[in-house]
Amino acid sequence: MPSLRAYASAAVFLAVAVSSTHLVTASSEPPWVLDAVDRLKTLGVLPLWIGMTRPVSLSDLRKALLEADRRGVATLAPGDQMLLERLRHQAGVDTGSSEDRTTLEGGNLGLAYGVHRSYVSLTGTEGFDRGWGVGWGVDSPTAGLRLGEQSAFFLGRERLGWGPGGEGGLLFSDAAGPFDKLQYSTTWRSVRYTKLVGWLDGGRSLAAARADWMANPNLRIGFSESIVMQGGPYWVYILQPVPILVNQIVGWVLRAQQQGIDDNYFGTIDIDWIPRTGLRLFGELLIDDITLPPNSYPSRWGATLGIQSVHPGGRSLLLQYTIIPNWTYSATNSGLHYLLRGLTLGHPLGADFDALRFNWRPSPDRPLGVWMTYIRKGEGEVGRIWADLTEATTYAFLRGVVEYSTILGLDVEIQGEQGPVGTVSPWIRHRENAGHVAGQAETDWGVGLSFQWSF
Q1: What is the CA angle 25-31-33, rounded to 5?
Q2: Segments making up each domain of the chain, as ranges
Q3: What is the pTM assigned to this prediction?
């Protein structure tokens, strides 16, 4: 059961959120939505803030589509125009002119099943046109209210992803599955702000925040943080509204004033930049712990760099490189590792690896994509920290016998006006030093499946 401090923290969070917002429910997006969002962002149609917090709520998707209308989309190629209309249909936004599109009505009830994500979820939404929202699910019950055109509040059990790296987000990916949380988001001028408190296993909680600053329509800069702690979240973390650095200072003060406080702090900086239409550069830097002389222990960090090139109406190519050294996400306090039910809240591969991802699609209206991932994975694992300086520096990256994996796959979309919509993903993988056993080679295969059936 949550502690008294947890209930008090939740009450503070609710008071802060309700004092300044409008409440709206989130809803898990179908598998094709994020690919469509990334493509249309690269073409300069959708705003760069959409997709930085995942799952993408219907209210956020609708707001992004209305912003796209204000930008003007008349010059889109036919295939991309069809993709945009498909997003509008998913969001329940009519396809009339932007002048007529002022009311956002309707809901969505669907069945989503994802083998590759290991979740089964029955989700639904209701009441958007009445200023409130309710959602329900097998593993993610939700509730929300709309308190304003710019803000939303979320209460429920849901997975979480942040940043431009898709499911490979460094601070939050959806790899660890859902957890209980209270989440508040709002927009003020050119800044999109999200804050949450969540409850994990082992009597732990976390406080997290991110701010996405739209420096201009073609440049977004994001700042985010997450703090894992024992018991309920401290009220000072909840009230403090500025992501990164300030809460780190607050933590130092708390540790100095009260014994036994050993919070695990993470911060990230990420960016999306469109130097020209059809070309998007993005990156993310995770800071777990930076050490400076005379401290000789290695710093713990992670980074993603990526580029997406989209030809209007034609092919899309994405290249993404991620590296996370050993020891990242781990803590000297074994109760504060960055894990949920044994899986990392951050990147699905954990730590001590690097990976190169390639994704190609021939056109927006062809239900086919080709992808390949090359991974080098050392024996380091989240939850193990060094015992001494020699171990720390010797095994800082690609510890022990390194496993080399090459995975090749296809994404075949199932589309249609009625019935299921989803993706079938057959793949084949070859591994050298499989299982970190020198000289052992293995080849295996599988099929990923995810779909949504609205009715």
Answers
A1: 70
A2: 4-96+107-454
A3: 0.82
